[in-house]
UniProtKB/TrEMBL annotation, chain A:
Membrane topology, record value: Multi-pass membrane protein
UniProt keyword terms in alphabetical order: Amino-acid transport, Cell membrane, Membrane, Transmembrane, Transmembrane helix, Transport
One of the GO BP terms on file: amino acid transport
InterPro entries membership: ABC_transp_permease, BCAA_transport_permease
Subcellular location: Cell membrane
Coiled coil: none
GO CC, any one term: plasma membrane
Organism name: Diaphorobacter ruginosibacter
Main subcellular localisation: membrane
Family: Belongs to the binding-protein-dependent transport system permease family. LivHM subfamily.
Protein name per the record: Branched-chain amino acid ABC transporter permease
Top-level lineage group: Bacteria
Signal peptide residue numbers: none
GO MF term set: transmembrane transporter activity
Length: 290, 332
């Protein structure tokens, strides 16, 4: 029983990482009606930046603050330079652009920092301490950070004026424009926030998976599965889905299929969700008109 | 937006009928190339074979993205399936490759059809998502312990080099290249034929005006699923031919990045062109040769920027440029 609860608790901690990344995916989905396949690499890149800052002598939290601001600006810049011009282009172009961004960031990180695994410090104490009954200090830290982040997202969308504008743009861009909302500005901020959520996910994942250019590939799949499970248009669904996938992944790995096939099972889950309920548990189906 | 699509589409779909001297010229050039390449060293033959193989795979991707308007990030999985099918049939059942390769293509058609059946009923983005997951999972799934007896696990399968009779016995690399070239030509002609039929026009309608076409009674999921199967068969054929050329398969040969390379080749060559696929294949095969001396990361950096450049500057890729130049020369 103790072991089972431990698996669930550390699944929730991993789920926190996926939930952050899934929130980023949902934000971008609402901006572009497409998925940012570079979201994982973007997170990886932010994490490398913070690693480089710590190597250069900055404290962990100072590096964190700088990277959060830097990621926000990077998100804004990417939107302005790449995705804003593609706003009315077919989805094929948007997907291709995000794949291009994926390989550029991946090879850039490999070029700048090498392909070797790097250790990445956690601010919460040990990663692999078995002293605690349920969670290592880092896992507890992940959970705490995720809860804080998600509360911030919730408050932002619920109470901030700008958050309301973002929701309006997501629901109906042209009507939002008619009531005087600057759609481009809103969507750019969406990109910035997604980059920040991704960076938080990367910083939380790096102490566990170690730092290397492809480190976010599997987390991205899990996050996608979470976002699809909850509903790719729904932030609340993405969070719930992210946590659910974390727990499911851990239980599958521990009791059912072992570590080799976890990802394959999650892939089958993605396909099953798409077949049975494409809009996800929390999503609404959308109708189109000729 | 739809106006724009139709415009570029028409420009690509109906090139000027090529004059008779051009066809004979192309045939003569092809035969000269065949004769000339007989004397080539093994390295240029290897490069040429790779270009032809990736060209077939990219043609498969173009059938899907350019002609059906769907996007797949999972074609590395079909490439892998074709390769493993050919290798397993040859290694375990002793089938000769000239039977195993077509069988692999047929298997990939079935696999593509079955996979596309649920996925293509949904908006295009969902196909991108599910194929993305499939591509990432492929190397891992191929290492699965339970099927190790079949796939050879991490080690993969090594086959013997095919032997050829008579004077070709010493020129096996050349003979392999000619077999691959013959397959490429056959695939090209088949694709051209299919796109030119009534079915090809239904495919166009299902891409350009899916809602209107559906309202008009077209069964769009069925059309798309057939095209997805065809696309998978082409890419699977390329995978099977890669076994003929390299006599080796292993899980690590089919990473997600293979799907990305194919996508890059498809865009660079031009998604709405069959012969452009071979230009794209030449790009993805030749770029690493030059760029790897700079850095291990350089080829991918170039791929990334090339893909961005094509998305922004040349939506019809190199073949679009060439067609455009050809048309404006012919019109002047």
């Amino acid at each position: 029983m103790q072991a089972f609860l431990h698996q669930i608790a550390s699944g929730l901690a991993a789920g926190g990482i996926y939930a952050s990344l899934a929130v980023a995916l949902v934000l971008i989905y609402r901006c572009t009606a497409s998925v940012n396949f570079a979201q994982g690499e973007l997170a990886m890149f932010s994490t490398y930046m913070s690693w480089a800052l710590v190597q250069a002598g900055a404290s962990w939290w100072a590096a964190f603050a700088i990277v959060v601001v830097g990621s926000f600006l990077l998100g804004l810049a990417l939107d302005r330079v790449i995705f804003q011009p593609l706003r009315h282009k077919p989805v094929l172009s948007v997907v291709a652009a995000s794949i291009a961004l994926l390989i550029i960031l991946n090879s850039l990180a490999g070029w700048l920092f090498g392909h070797e695994l790097q250790e990445f410090a956690t601010p919460f104490g040990g990663v692999l301490s078995h002293a605690e009954p349920f969670l290592s200090a880092h896992e507890a830290g992940i959970l705490l950070a995720t809860v804080v982040e998600l509360l911030a997202v919730f408050v932002f969308f619920r109470f901030a004026r700008f958050g309301l504008a973002m929701r309006a743009v997501a629901v109906n861009p042209s009507s939002a424009e008619l009531v005087g909302i600057n759609t481009n500005k809103v969507l750019a901020v969406g990109w910035g926030l997604a980059a920040v959520a991704g960076a938080v996910a990367g910083l939380m994942a790096a102490p566990i998976v170690f730092l290397e250019p492809s480190m976010m590939m599997s987390p991205l799949i899990y996050a996608l599965a979470g976002a699809l499970l909850g509903g790719i248009a729904s932030p609340v669904g993405a969070v719930a889905g992210g946590f659910a996938i974390g727990v499911l992944e851990n239980l599958l790995g521990a009791y059912v299929v072992g570590n080799d096939l976890k990802l394959t099972c999650i892939m089958l889950l993605i396909i099953a969700v798409l077949v049975v309920r494409p809009s996800g548990i929390f999503g609404k189906s959308v109708q189109v008109r000729v | 937006m739809s106006m724009n699509i139709n415009h570029t589409h028409n420009a690509m779909e109906h090139p000027l009928a090529s004059p008779i001297w051009l066809r004979w010229g192309a045939l003569a050039a092809g035969l000269a190339l065949v004769a000339w390449s007989f004397g080539w060293q093994s390295y240029p033959l290897y490069v040429m074979t790779q270009v032809l193989i990736y060209g077939i795979a990219i043609m498969g991707l173009n059938l899907l993205s350019g002609y059906t308007g769907q996007v797949s990030l999972g074609h590395s999985a079909f490439f892998a399936l074709g390769a493993y099918a050919a290798a397993v049939l040859s290694h375990h059942l002793g089938w000769p490759l000239y039977v195993g390769v077509p069988a692999a293509a047929v298997l990939c058609f079935v696999a593509g059809f079955l996979f596309g059946f649920p996925a293509l009923r949904l908006p295009m983005l969902y196909l991108a998502l599910s194929t993305f997951a499939v591509a990432v999972v492929t190397p891992q799934a191929l290492k699965w312990k339970q099927i190790e007896w079949l796939t050879g696990g991490v080690q993969g399968i090594i086959l013997e080099k095919p032997t050829f009779p008579g004077m070709l016995a010493d020129r096996a690399d050349w003979a392999i290249m000619m077999c691959v070239a013959a397959c490429a030509l056959a695939a090209f002609l088949l694709a051209q034929r299919i796109l030119g039929t009534q079915f090809g026009r239904l495919v166009d309608a299902s891409r350009d005006q899916p809602l209107a076409a559906a309202a008009g009674g077209l069964n769009i999921p069925v059309i798309r699923t057939q095209m997805f199967g065809l696309s998978a068969a082409f890419t699977g054929l390329a995978g099977a031919l890669s076994v003929v050329a390299g006599q080796f398969v292993s899980p690590e040969s089919f990473p997600f990045l293979l799907s990305v390379s194919l996508l890059v080749g498809s865009f660079v060559g031009g998604v709405r062109s069959l012969w452009g696929a071979f230009l794209g294949a030449a790009f993805i095969v030749l770029t690493p040769n030059g760029a790897e001396s700079l850095s291990k990361s350089a080829p991918w950096m170039i791929f990334g920027f090339a893909l961005l450049a094509v998305v922004f500057l040349a939506p019809n890729g190199l073949s679009g440029w060439i067609t455009h130049a050809w048309r404006s020369r012919a019109n002047s």
